[in-house]
Design brief:
Helix content is about 30%, strand content about 25%. The longest helix is centred in the C-terminal third of the chain and has 15 residues. The chain is an alpha/beta fold and about 475 residues long. It has a seven-stranded mixed sheet. A seven-stranded mixed sheet has the order 10-9-8-11-14-16-15. The protein starts with a strand and ends with a strand. Strand 8, helix 7 and strand 9 form a beta-alpha-beta unit.
Length: about 475
């Protein structure tokens, strides 16, 4: 095992390590994380060889590049001593090739003259090839990490570039340049990271039951997966003016061949064939803030049952009823009835659906809101068929949202607890919340509009 340094982007810090580990698992690369901190962009790992390093970083969104680590130390004298001691036998391999040196100072700054002086301090390496700023055969980089004030050097590394990450995909799929978006479209960077955590890859089938404008589907297709999606909002699926829709986004990026279809449906009334044939599910279900969370159905089923239909009155035949239902549902502007639904219930529905639809080791990536650490949090949902792999957090002002990633366990590893069975029975007993109001069914929605008030000495803060 050789040591490598991964230069990470200093953004979405809690997502970076889970993405690296997910990519290692996807590429079947054995990895040992030697050092990692959310407060630093430098991560050192041990890998088998350069081939493994390239496979690991090639599709990383939060990793800028991976470098063969030649030396590290708290000061430059110690760094140079380690380079001379450990790598002298390798200098001849790069004596005549074209090369370039880079200086990457995190939380610090060096002038051009200071950078040149620093680079010249490595002249003992004896590289006699031409210096090429673009397209050089080899790139060497000196990494510096300074303290927060930028006055004291904490650590320095020196390494040889093996491969760059895929952060250019963020620009390619930038929402500002996309044909069809809405206010709920997930930004390109997090959509691509979510696709990585879900193992989107060639030959995989990925499904989004809350597709919206298709941000996750586009991201998964970028990595070569076949994708399909659905959404309860027919307006999102149909798009605008018959020209701007989900399919138009795929056409924009030349990914039409990877989109199977997008249709209007509700996860609680899914038309998909039962069975475990999906490789991955990724979704950002509605939080019910802009409007209460809803599913297909009528608000008051008891009242509907009391009103006799034409078929029940004998006014039409069964065949006529079937034709009438089909024709009514096929009207271009038909909007099926909807009713309020519990946010906690939809989380359980997603996990149930994933457990019955994913193949062994298939992945579910689920976004869900929560309060910040000082406030009451929504619990992380669990399921005996699903193993929680990672929890990533994106913080906002007074609340946050988490990306939860699960792995579908093989049947031989599943253990149904008494607590889970009891919870299932409780869910069956309370039904599906017919007739309740949106705020009663969605604790997060209620707290959002209350401003996430902090409790003071056991009493709720008053506005």
């Amino acid at each position: 095992m050789k040591e490598y340094l991964i230069r990470l982007a200093q953004v979405h810090e809690s997502f970076r390590k889970p993405e690296i580990l997910a990519l290692a698992a996807l590429a079947d690369v054995k990895i040992e994380v030697h050092s990692y901190s959310e407060f630093s962009p430098f991560c050192t790992v041990k890998l088998r060889d350069e081939t493994a390093a390239r496979a690991l970083i090639s599709r990383s969104i939060l990793g800028k590049g991976i470098f063969e680590l030649w030396a590290t130390g708290p000061t430059y004298p110690e760094l140079h001593a380690t380079i001379r001691q450990n790598t002298a036998a390798r200098w001849a391999d790069y004596q005549s090739c074209s090369f370039r040196f880079e200086v990457d100072a995190y939380q610090g700054k060096r002038s051009v003259a200071a950078q040149r002086e620093l680079i010249e301090s490595f002249s003992y390496l004896g590289f006699n090839g031409p210096i090429v700023m673009r397209g050089a055969d080899e790139t060497f980089c000196v990494f510096e990490e300074w303290d927060g004030s930028g006055t004291a050097l904490k650590q320095v590394w020196m390494g040889r570039l093996i491969a760059r990450g895929s952060r250019d995909a963020i620009t390619t799929y930038d929402l500002k340049k996309r044909c069809y978006i809405s206010t709920t479209s997930m930004d390109a960077e997090l959509a691509l990271v979510t696709a990585n955590l879900t193992f989107a890859a060639p030959g995989k089938l990925i499904y989004d039951p809350f597709a919206g404008t298709g941000s996750f589907l586009v991201a998964a297709a970028h990595f070569g997966a076949y994708v399909a999606g659905s959404d309860i909002d027919g307006r999102a699926v149909r798009g605008k003016d018959g020209k701007k829709d989900v399919k138009a986004n795929f056409k924009q990026y030349g990914l039409e061949g990877r989109l199977l279809d997008v249709w209007v449906a509700d996860l609680t009334n899914s038309p998909l064939r039962a069975g475990r044939w999906l490789d991955g599910i990724l979704c950002d279900p509605p939080y019910g803030v802009r409007e209460g969370l809803k599913v297909l159905g009528t608000r008051d089923r008891e009242r509907v049952k009391e009103e006799a239909t034409p078929f029940e009155r004998g006014a039409i035949t069964k065949a006529e009823k079937l034709i009438r239902d089909i024709n009514g549902n096929r009207q271009p502007h038909y909007i099926p009835p909807k009713r309020p639904y519990s946010f906690l219930a939809i989380r359980e529905d997603i996990l149930d659906f994933a457990s019955s639809s994913l193949v062994d080791n298939g992945r579910l990536s689920l976004w869900m809101p929560t309060a910040n650490e000082d406030l009451t949090e929504l619990s992380i949902p669990t399921h005996p068929c699903l193993e929680l792999v990672s929890v990533c957090v994106q913080a906002f002002n007074k609340w946050a949202r988490r990306l939860l990633t699960y792995r579908r366990l093989p049947d031989s590893e599943i253990v149904y607890s008494e607590e889970f069975l009891s919870r299932r029975m409780e869910k069956l007993g309370r039904g599906d919340f017919v007739g309740a109001k949106a705020d009663e069914l969605n604790d997060f929605r209620r707290k959002y509009f209350e401003g996430f008030k902090l409790p003071l000495n056991g009493f709720e803060a008053q506005p």
